[in-house]
Amino acid sequence: MDVPAAENNNGRRVDARALRFAIIFPVLLCLGLVIGGLLLAGALPRGVELPTGGGPLPVPAFLAVAVALTLLLGIGVGTQGARTTLPRQLRRVLLGVGMALQLASATLFAAALLGQSVQGGAAVQRVDGYVALMGCGLAAAMGVVLALTFKPDEQWTPADDAALAEVLDLEADPDAARDRLGYVIHPRSSVIIMIVLCGLLPGSVLSILSPWLLLVTTLVAVAVVGALCATVHIDRTALTVKLAGLLPVLVIPCTGIDAAVSLVVAARDHGGWGLSRRGGSASFLAASGAAVVLRQGDGGRAVVGAPDLDTADAAAAILNRRAGKPATE
Q1: Three-state secondary-structure class, residue 11
Q2: Helix (H, G, I), strand (E, B) or coil at 193
Q3: In the beta sheet, which residues pair with residue 248?
Q4: So what's the pLDDT on residue 72?
Q5: How far, in Å, are 51, 107, 230, 244, 270 from residue 247 at the CA level?
Q6: Where do the domains of the chain lie, and which CATH numbers do they carry?
Q7: For residue 239, is pLDDT > 70?
Q8: Are residues 4 and 154 in contact, defined by beta-carbon separation less than 8 angstroms?
Q9: Strand pairing partners for 291?
Q10: Are strands 230-234 and 181-185 parallel, antiparallel or unpaired?
Q11: E strand or H helix at 57, and its extent?
């Protein structure tokens, strides 16, 4: 489903096209639900119970409740995704959640209508389980698809200011393009296998007591491996270490660096594997070996692993060029 985003060149606080979609779609969905309910009204002479139970309601009253709840969920949540004052990713999530909730609501009421209408001698059910299961699965899938495909309107942000300043800096100093490096650090394959086996083997034995224990020990092993994997990005502003490439766990501004050197280090001398903070010092090492050692202006020290000495040398060279300098220099 393609949901275009409105242009926001006039400083509007609402994405008009997203707002129209968030209102029109649940209205059309409720219209279809009402038509289907009226078609089944003849098979429901005693009324319909709500999916949550209680006494039977006349079909019009049942449909009124269904429409009210579906509109409340769809419009109430979906229209929040049209607010341009919210972060882009949050807007995508809100629109996707609104889609999933309104589809799930319509599905449950439709399943109640079908389950309680006597068709072909079938047993009466408060909610048709197959319809509810398939419909709610579709609702979740559609919510995810909409969240991934919705494109919020583009707006000028502080990140754009920083990007423009960087472009201007590169035009003034073409050699500054060299001051950028990124790489991945992770444990050796033998260490990864050892950690996974330490989770699987005890878990296999404990699974005799409960299969959930095998799942828990496996997830713990995967989490430990993930805690030792990170990406390192170096540019004109800072050295940043992101756990699993997503969560920043160590950010060292270039303005606070006095000097950098590439060395071969032992992890046990710097707090062990993974992230370590001791006093004014910090380190992130996936294994013993090549690393970049930074001396900071406040007297602290930082140690960040590298795949090999060549990469560590390149990182140290960039950091030494940028040591003590703001990004605009």
Answers
A1: coil
A2: helix
A3: 242
A4: 92
A5: 42, 37, 9, 7, 21
A6: 16-149 (no CATH), 160-187+228-322 (2.30.29)
A7: yes
A8: no
A9: 263, 305
A10: antiparallel
A11: strand 53-57
Mean per-residue pLDDT for 170-188? 73
Distance in angstroms (rounded) separating the CA atoms of residues 143 and 130: 20
d(CA 184, CA 257): 22
Q: Would you state the structure tokens that stand for residue 216, as one six-digit string?
A: 């828990």
Burial classification of residue 300, based on how many CB atoms lie within 10 Å of its CB (0-12 exposed, 13-18 middle, 19 or more buried): middle
CA distance 97 to 7: 23
**Model confidence over 252-301: pLDDT tens digits?**
888 888 888 988 988 888 888 888 888 778 889 888 888 999 888 777 88
Over 50: is that where the pLDDT of 6 sits? no
Instruction: Please report the pLDDT score of residue 68 as a whole number.
Output: 92
| CB neighbourhood size of 329 (10 A) | 12
**How far is 265 from 269, CA to CA, in rounded Å?**
8
Structure tokens that stand for 75 in this block: 């419009």
In contact, 111 and 151? CB cutoff 8 Å? no
Cβ-proximal residues to 46 (8 Å cutoff; 6+ apart), any chain? 56
The helix/strand/coil state of 247 is: strand
Question: Of 6-15, 158-167, 188-197, where does mean pLDDT reach its minimum?
Answer: 6-15
Neighbouring CB atoms inside 10 A of 32's CB total: 11
* pLDDT score for 279: 78
Q: What DSSP state is assigned to residue 100?
A: H
C-alpha 305/C-alpha 276 separation (Å) is 12
Q: How far is CA 158 from the centre of its chain?
A: 22
74 has a pLDDT exceeding 80: yes
Q: Angle at which helices 211-227 and 189-206 pack, to 10 degrees? A: 160
Identify the residue with better confidence: 171 or 250: 250
**Is pLDDT at 198 greater than 50 in this prediction?**
yes
Token code pair at residue 135: 């419909």
Q: What's the one-letter identity of residue 172?
A: A
Q: Which one, of 179, 177, 172, 322, lies nearest residue 258 by Cα?
A: 322
